[in-house]
Structures are given as C-alpha cells and as structure tokens.
Amino acid sequence: MACFSIAGLFGLFGLAFTKTGPRPDLVRWAASWVIIPLALVAPAVFWYFKEIPSERLATARTIPYWNNLALAAITALAVIALLAAAAWVSRGKRALRAIASLMMLLGLAAAGLGEWIREDLRLPYLVAGEVYANDIPAAALGAARANGIMAGSRWFSQEQVARQNEALAGKEIFISACSQCHTVRANLMPLGPRMAAVDEDFASWLTYRTAFMRGGMPPFPGTEAEAEAVAHYLRVAAMPELAHQDGRSVFERRCGPCHTLSGPFRPVLPAFEGEDANGATAILDNIRSFSEQMPKWTGSQEEKKALAEWLAARSAEQGKKGAP
C-alpha cells in the first residue's frame, strides 16, 4: 500500500511540473493512487500492531519520543489524504504545484517516521531473537558476559582490561558494543555527558545493566570489568559539565534510565506514597531492599536530599489529585 501511495505522490509531483500543464484526468488518476491505499492503512496498521508481541510494544512506548513519532506519522498521512482530495478538484497549475510539493514532503516524512517506528519496535534486536542492535549474536551473549567481549574478538589492540589501559580498552569496547547507536559527546544519543554527571561506581553499574534500562537497550556484551572500562572512558572523554543538583535532574540521571516517575515502565512514585522528605530519604537509604538488581546509593548527600524532597513533593501532589 505504501508503494502505491508513493507512486501516486511521484505521479502528482511529475504532472504538476509538466511544461504543457497537467491533464485533469491524469491528476485524478494519480490522486486515486494516493487516496485508495491510504484508506486501507488504518486496518493494516491495526493488524500490524495486533501482531507485535506485547512486551515489544511496551518497550517501545518507554522511549520518550515514541508516542510523538506515531502521532506525527498519523497526522502526516491524514494531511496527505486531504491534500490528495484537494488535488483531485484542483484546476490551477500553481495550486497543484504547491499541493503536490507539500504532499511529497509529507510523504517522505511519513515514510521516514514509519521506518523509525518500525526500527524502534525491533529493539533490543536487529534481527528478532537472533542479533542484538549492537550486532552481537544472541547466541554469543552468554560467553561474552562470562569471558569478555575482548576475549572473543581479534579486533582489539588490548587483550584484557588493566588499570594502565582502562581508558583505551574502554574506548575500543565502546566502539564495538555501543557506537552503533551512541556517540561519546554529541549528536547521536551521546553517553558521555550522562556518565560524567554521576560517580564512577554508578556509571559502571548502569553500563553493565543496560538491559534494565528504558527504551529497549540490549544487554552489555562483556564482563563487569569491561563495563567499568567503558564507564571510565566515557567519563574521561566527555567534556566535564556541572551537573544540576535539583531533584528532577537527580531523578533523571540516577533513576530515569530504568524507571518512570508514574508512567508505564517501573514507576517509582507508588513506593513513596504518603512519605515526607525524611521517609523518602529512608527509602533511598534502603533502596536495595526493593530488588537485588537495584544499585546502592552512590550519590552525594546533597543529591539524596534534593531527590527525596522532590519525590515527596510529587507524591503529595499525586495524593491531592486522587483525593475525593
């Protein structure tokens, strides 16, 4: 269906810019190639999402921008359909050129958004169940986490992580296991600033447990020592930035990678229901009692105080909303 619609878009665009002027019958024919397939999109999309495993869809929805992508794609398709109807009745060359140009731009945007959504739905895999998004075969993950990613590859200049080569080893592991989706400092989902904003123990903990993060991160394909090397490299290579100490910022860097506040993915607010700042602080002090996968608190007392006060305030607000 997408192919037919795209063919109609190109047809309209070509007709709009012919020297002799567009023939109305051909314009209507090209517009029908856009409108009719788009009418079938809704049931096709419904079927597509119905067939997607629920856990994959739930994972995609934890990506902060994912719902906005879906809304933008739906809006673009709806506008294209309206413009195709306008092209059907259009008689002026200038009007048709404007309509066809806008339809082409929206069509390309909708196609790109659709591919983006589809790629996010595959996470954490590149090939479902077979290859992770960082090109690590699923069958090789166990050996990589037990023996190290460096031990199973010929492409590393270092054979193992040592104190004297930690930054270099971390860089090479980052290139092999992380650079498919991330950069260090800028542009494509940079990790350096995030790691530079927390202490090295917590950065290492996050790196080794990427599978617990929001957004469909694949498991880290190496040992804890290799994860520590990657965290060390990112912190050293990242441009130092002064981390904000307000409660929301502390939550985003220390809790946000794996939790939402009150959203669908591991919400933390229910655990702080009815607690004041002192009660919230006590919970943070005993955070590992919730799960052995939780890290111990490694932040500063200033960060803990700001986070506790912020969580207590958000809990109070939530309580007021739910009060009769």
The rough form would be described as: globular
Count of folded domains: 3
Rg from Cα: 25 Å
What is the SS-derived class? mainly alpha
Order of SSEs: HHHHHHEEHHHHHHHH
Order of strands in the sheet with most strands: 1-2
Overall average residue pLDDT: 88
| Poorly predicted sequence stretches spanning 5 or more consecutive residues | none
Strand content bin: under 5%
Number of helices: 14
Helix content, binned percent: 55-70%
First-last Cα distance: 50 Å
Biggest sheet statistics: 2 strands, antiparallel
Structure description:
The chain is mainly alpha-helical. The chain folds into 3 domains: 2-122; 131-237, Cytochrome c-like domain (Cytochrome Bc1 Complex, Chain D, domain 2), CATH 1.10.760.10; 247-322, Orthogonal Bundle (Cytochrome Bc1 Complex, Chain D, domain 2), CATH 1.10.760. 58% of the residues lie in helices and 2% in strands. The protein is built from 14 helices and 2 strands. The chain has helices at 2-16, 24-39, 41-51, 54-60, 66-89, 93-122, 141-147, 166-177, 192-196, 200-208, 224-237, 247-254, 277-285, 301-322; strands at 125-127, 131-132. The chain has a two-stranded antiparallel ribbon with strand order 1-2. Strand 1 (125-127) and strand 2 (131-132) form a beta hairpin. Helix 2 packs antiparallel against helix 5 (66-89) and helix 12 (247-254) packs across helix 14. The longest helix has 30 residues, at 93-122. The mean pLDDT is 88.
